[in-house]
Specification:
Length: about 425
């Protein structure tokens, strides 16, 4: 789920930690732009990329959160459509499981699968804490990111992330970070117009070599979407607005002369699937009714995926895994229940013992049908297809080209690294450079 289900206490929130970093001198606050936008910057870093610092190349990654590839069209999103047609597009592109926001943003910026990053889902059962929590802590990412690699190469970076948990998990890695405000209290995200104001100001005044932007409106309207026509209209309105915001970004690159030096990667982190009120799966009751499993399974509900964690004796784990799989697969609406240790899943122990995906048109709701009232969800294979295209005026970007390759979210970091001529991390990337 994308709902901010585990709200941190105020004193440990990402915002409070950011404020503490400013207080202790690790970052400095910078007001920029007519709107008084607030950025924090690594203490001692140049406020603006020094002229000639490395390269004039610029890379921008624009995430249209939760956008389906079939929603990009000449009528509804003419600007995104024109960008896609003019550059290098990947119609077969895919999000990676678990098809949730945090793991896929982490995969974009690391180029690595969750068994290496430590971030397999939005919600996990934290065995040390003994509770389900959101993966929104900076230390949740165990590996380096392309942001850090650029910084170490003497280049500057910026993050403009509209969601509180993304702001939390990427923390203070970037040279420049937008302090997102105002955040909509219920959804925990900043509307796209504010996010784009911040992105434009960051590019205009701080000019980082890499800027990573998340636009959250389409996803948020997707979650609120019922299959009725009225709310579909709200999502179309959000799509049209996000399209206008993307064009503002392109307009700035063109009017400031940056376009010819730029690579612009546009993609979604996952798509969206809608379920009717009755098409809801709750496994907690059935698991607790089983003599072996009763009271010994914790569930992290990720909307389109349930992660099941055996909390009983280690000696009984194999039997418990088989039992959990059998019960889950006998439940209407379940697509598959995988033993998490299967090598191809590459999810790592943070994802628990059994990974359960729902069919299209269903959702998980734990511990009972009231747990997840949101009709729009992702995390399951039905939400795998994403828009993914590379645009920009830099000569390295192919023009009017369609590739049959399956680009994936893990390809973003290697693509950015390759564009800047940076090498690979130890162990190599799991994704591949797409230009
Ligand atoms: Zn998302």
């Amino acid at each position: 789920m994308c709902t901010p289900s585990s709200v941190e206490p105020v004193e440990t929130s990402a915002f409070a930690r950011g404020a503490a970093q400013v207080r202790t001198g690790r970052r400095t606050l910078l007001r920029a732009g007519g709107a008084g936008l607030v950025f924090s910057t690594v203490a001692g870093a140049p406020a603006v990329a020094a002229a000639g610092a490395g390269t004039r190349k610029r890379a921008y990654v624009l995430v249209v959160d939760g956008c389906r590839p079939d929603e990009i069209s000449p009528v509804l999103t003419p600007n995104l459509h024109a960008l896609r047609e003019g550059g290098l597009s990947f119609p077969e592109a895919a999000s990676m499981w678990v098809m949730e926001t945090i793991p896929n943003h982490v995969m974009m910026m690391t180029g690595l699968r969750p068994d290496r990053t430590g971030v397999p889902a939005n919600e996990i059962f934290d065995r040390a804490l003994g509770e389900v929590r959101t993966m929104d802590r900076k230390r949740d990412i165990r590996t380096g990111t392309v942001i850090g690699r650029l910084n170490r190469a003497g280049l500057t970076t910026g993050t403009v992330l509209s969601k509180e948990y993304l702001y939390g998990v990427f923390g203070d890695r970037a040279t420049h970070r937008w302090e997102p405000a105002p955040v909509v209290p219920v959804s925990g995200h900043a509307p796209d117009v504010f996010t784009m104001d911040a992105a434009l100001t960051m590019v205009d005044e701080l000019d980082p070599h890499l800027v990573f932007v998340n636009l959250g409106d389409i996803d948020r309207f997707g979650h609120a979407d019922y299959t009725g026509n009225d709310v579909q209209l709200a999502r179309r309105t959000a799509l049209a607005d996000t399209d206008r915001q993307a064009q503002r970004f392109v307009d700035l690159l063109r009017s400031s002369g940056r376009w010819e030096q730029s690579m612009l990667v546009v993609l979604a982190d996952h798509s969206m699937d809608w379920s009717r009120p009755g098409d809801v799966i709750s496994l907690q009751g059935a698991l607790d009714a089983d003599p072996l499993l009763a009271g010994k399974v914790a569930i992290a509900d990720n909307g389109g995926a349930d992660l099941l964690y055996w909390t009983g004796a280690a000696a009984k784990r194999d039997a418990a895994v088989r039992r959990m799989q059998r019960i889950a697969e006998a439940t209407p609406g379940v697509l598959a229940a995988h033993d998490r240790r299967k090598a191809w899943l590459r999810l790592g122990p943070e994802a628990g013992d059994v990974v359960v995906f729902c069919k299209a048109g269903w959702r998980f709701s734990e511990p009972d049908p009231t747990g997840n009232p949101i009709p729009g969800n992702h995390g399951h294979p039905a939400t795998r297809a994403i828009p993914f295209f590379v645009s920009g005026g830099h000569p390295a970007v192919p023009r009017r080209t369609t590739s049959s390759a399956q680009a994936r979210t893990i390809d973003v970091a290697p693509t950015v690294a390759s564009f800047f001529g940076l090498g690979k991390p130890r162990g190599g990337y799991d994704g591949r450079a797409r230009i």
